[in-house]
Amino acid sequence: MAGNIPQIKMGLVAVSRDCFPRELAERRRRAIVREYADDIFECEIIVENEKEAVEAVRIIKNAGCNALTVFLGNFGPETPETLIARMFDGPCMYVAAAEGDGDLRHGRGDAYCGLLNCSYNLGLRHLKAYIPKYPIGNAKELADKIREFIPVARALIGVRNLKIITFGPRPQDFFACNAPIKGLYDLGVEIQENSELDLYVAFQNHADDPRIPEVAADMAQELGSGNTYPQILNRLAQYELTLLDWAEENKGTREYVAFANKCWPAFPVQFGFEPCYVNSRLASRGIPVGCEVDIYGTLSEYIGACLSNDAVTLLDINNTVPESMFREHIAGRYNYRLEETFMGFHCGNTPACKLCNSSMQYMLIQNRNLENGRDPDFTRGTLEGNIVSGDITFYRLHADPSGTLKAYIAQGEVLPVNTASFGGIGIFAIREMDRFYRYVLIEKHFPHHGAVAFGHFGKLLYNVLDLLSVQDISYNRPRGVLYDHENPFDNE
Predict the structure, then answer these.
(1) Are residues 109 and 168 in the same domain?
(2) Which of the residue ranges 29-33, 342-346, 365-369, 387-391 would you say has the lowest mean pLDDT?
(3) Has residue 434 been placed in a domain?
(4) What are the pLDDT digits (tens) for 41-92?
(5) How far apart are CA 475 and CA 492, in angstroms?
(6) SS3 assignment, position 431
(7) Could you give phi then psi for residue 390, rounded to 5 degrees?
(8) Residue 174 and residue 94 share a domain
(9) Most buried of the four, 80, 235, 236, 251, by CB within 10 Å?
(10) Same structural domain for residues 93 and 45?
(11) Under a CB-based contact definition with an 8 Å cutoff, are residues 95 and 13 in contact?
(12) How many CA atoms lie within 13 A of 344 on its CB side?
């Protein structure tokens, strides 16, 4: 995942109110560094005043830190400690020391009290900082909170330094994937919109690229026995190089890039293949390629990639599980109701590392539409297989027609049950999915695309969305906890 996902170098700076012993903050800071036992930059300055805050931030930046933990070793000075967040201009976490390493007469730090004034001062200055659920602790506990802050910082830095490149416009009747891009600019994301013709010209210019054989060979190795259409690998390799070169040449002032590309109906006819397999390969490297010019879906994927430091995917919340399949393979084995299961599907964009027995296939739906169901030619290029079983987080960041950001998060799992279907597909199980589907996805007008991170990342994802100032974050509420418009008299 290296290259398109931020790498975090964490800094640690301790603050001290001048009427408290600065040695207390210094001793407690060093204890955190010992417990952390990993790469962290320890700023030697104990910040008591504004000039020391300026100097500390200068040293921390010069050390290459891009995220910072501000530690209240004692009560702490309100103004200098909050100005650190403004001057650092990167993700900052504020934590404070618990008592217990000295007597409560001359060794009491009162950081529990000081953090209240710190948070109040942050609010006065309109500064958004990460404060953990319980931000007080001993050295070991605070070292653990720093580790938990790392993926949050990765996602925040990634979003701030991201450019999403699109090739469109969206396919007809896919307005659900459309949303005002103002919300993206509010987040600090840069957008570059291009036409399919731009992409086609760039693709043609790569026709004789000397790197094609090497990339095609890498594809063949990845596909293994699933390399059912080896004759199209050179064209797919040509397309992969086209996208990677476009990203490098057009990232501009941004460090990270993702794509949101149109993939039908004209694409396969003109390019001679479906782009899904290439999209899957880029996603496995931390470069999501959103299907059907779904810009917010792409951003959602990228946030998940930063949090998980792993491959992600974008799927349709697609179809119900047949009752007969549920009775035969799920009921009595897994503790879910039929209505809590569904199939997540896309044509073939899920990375091979997240599929069971993946193979190169063709897009059945487009084959019906564009090739009249004949032997596939230009509809080849999808990556098919059942999605690997295990924990997942299903989520999306989106914008309503006015540009207001909203999101949902639901944790669940993919069941180890053969879907007996096509595409990249899996049987997903999410508690109270039927109510979540009705009172979040439908009620709040979310589109059919959802991002999938492989693991339970709801806690971290919620923190990231909150720090991005997303006001409306929905989740799958347990039974007995009603949604805003859920009928309290409907007990069926």
Answers:
(1) no
(2) 365-369
(3) yes
(4) 999 999 999 999 999 999 999 999 999 999 999 999 999 999 999 999 899 9
(5) 22
(6) coil
(7) 135, 180
(8) no
(9) 236
(10) yes
(11) no
(12) 31
φ, ψ for residue 69, nearest 5 deg: -105, 120
**Which residues are 472's β-sheet partners?**
406
Closest Cα partner for 391 from 371, 415, 373? 415
* CA distances to 75, 84, 127, 276, 441 from 48, in Å: 11, 12, 20, 56, 49
Sheet holding 162-168, edge to edge: 190-195, 162-168, 256-261, 289-291
pTM: 0.96
Residue in the structure block whose two tokens are 């290459």: 64
Q: What's the CA gap between 46 and 27, in Å, rounded? A: 11
Torsion sign (Cα): 211, 248, 310, 355: negative
Distance (Å, whole) CA 436 – CA 438: 5
Question: Is residue 235 within 8 Å of residue 273, measured between CB atoms?
Answer: yes
Q: Decide if 296 contacts 397 (C-beta within 8 A).
A: yes
Same domain membership, residue 430 and residue 342: yes
**Same structural domain, 139 and 205:** no
Task: Fill in the DSSP letter of residue 232.
Answer: G
Which structural domain, as residue segments, surrounds residue 272?
161-475
104-117 pLDDT tens trace: 878 888 999 999 99
